[in-house]
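Ops channel
N.P.: pipeline sanity check, posting one input/output pair.
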């Protein structure tokens, strides 16, 4: 059983100060009444940031003498690994085991899928 991500899923970065919500814009396939995410929902429009970043790989943190700086994730690619058996808008769905990688060294994971209903495999 898998929990697929929908709009407002709660994401966390290991270098971020606070969680943020995934934004999945319509038109979209819905699950439990919310737009469902696919692996291509990884842009700044989808993952707006985690308030402040503490990664020493972030140029803004370096410029701030190592102190936390405003978070603007530099996500390197789509959600991985995705759920290829479940397609959302012709791309693999995203579940709670998927992650994103930030070019500044962070790993973005899922705290809450945004829905409590469980969808098979």
């Amino acid at each position: 059983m898998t929990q697929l991500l929908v709009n407002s899923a709660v994401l966390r970065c290991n270098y971020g100060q606070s969680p943020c919500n995934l934004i999945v814009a319509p038109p979209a396939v819905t699950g439990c009444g919310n737009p469902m995410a696919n692996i291509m929902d990884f842009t700044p429009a989808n993952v707006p940031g985690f308030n402040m970043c503490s990664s020493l790989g972030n140029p803004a943190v370096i410029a701030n003498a190592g102190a936390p700086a405003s978070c603007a994730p530099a996500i390197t690619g789509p959600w991985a690994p995705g759920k290829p058996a479940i397609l959302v808008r012709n791309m693999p769905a995203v579940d709670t085991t998927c992650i994103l990688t930030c070019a500044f060294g962070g790993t973005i994971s899922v705290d809450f899928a945004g829905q409590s209903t469980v969808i098979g495999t």
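N.P.: looks fine end to end. The chain has one domain: 1-121.
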